[in-house]
């Protein structure tokens, strides 16, 4: 009965919570801008994104999590492509990102050669150790190593004939000690500051492939960061009895490295975290959302669903079990109760150059905001 009463009171008060949608859209445009260059490993993209997020926390008057510095610094290895990214097939020049991508662990190469067909989609230049593969869709990623060969993936629809020859000039640079930072801030709790609700999202994306092509990363995960910053702005103006903590992680695309580093070097005691909610790819939502770890924390998931259903916020919230697919994972492994929420429906762009802010409708952002505020109040009661 007490639980029902609490949730009823929460639903009554949800109407007075409003997300600043103009701020959210402006933030997303900044995060996906050419200036931040895909929030990645060339042209200081990730560093510029980190500075921007830090500036937002400061503007809201959030405090550094350790009381001194918003940035938790760490390093990891990464293969990058800062310069030339030129490819011609059968004399036709192809466009990086749209017509072709290079395998993320590829070594750089300059070559002109004929290709040997191995099967319907695979072609080889054995002498120069080049593999060409035709694909229906191009998706890129990040590698922490360099192979001794070069992979090139070409969109099938970009070619009108079978690849017979190529001319290629690809530059790679392996960085063994790339410097990155998690950005960490808190709104101190009024009466129970040692009890923490943590909201997280990764801010890194794929960066650039060559000197002229970058991956905006609007849904993945500019949407999550802009949503997190909107919540940070709200909670800065409306402190709660629990401490509300915010972390924007680096290194997620390279293997959820930032969150792994934080759990191994926690700035706040992990035992103090009442609950963690990670958001990654929340820019859609026409068909609802999915929560990873729903089966692990059935009581909290039931409450989340009740708040959602009675408030008519999202179409539905699908339960999913444990999965190592975002920054919640290493927290769960350390015993921290955590959800990972992502929305569904709408655009299908993922890890490609078409994941742009203008493709995201913002149709459920405000209701998702209300859902989070309501769920956090439930956790504190």
From TrEMBL:
A Pfam family per the record: Peptidase_M28
Listed InterPro entries: M28_fam (IPR045175), Peptidase_M28 (IPR007484)
Tree of life domain: Bacteria
GO biological process: proteolysis
PROSITE patterns: PROKAR_LIPOPROTEIN
Signal peptide: 1-18
Residues passing through the membrane, by range: none
Molecular functions (GO terms): metalloexopeptidase activity
Keyword RNA-binding found: no
Key words of the record: Signal
Ranges where the Peptidase M28 domain occurs: 182-370
Protein name from the UniProt record: M28 family peptidase
Lineage, uppermost ranks: Bacteria, Pseudomonadati, Bacteroidota, Sphingobacteriia, Sphingobacteriales
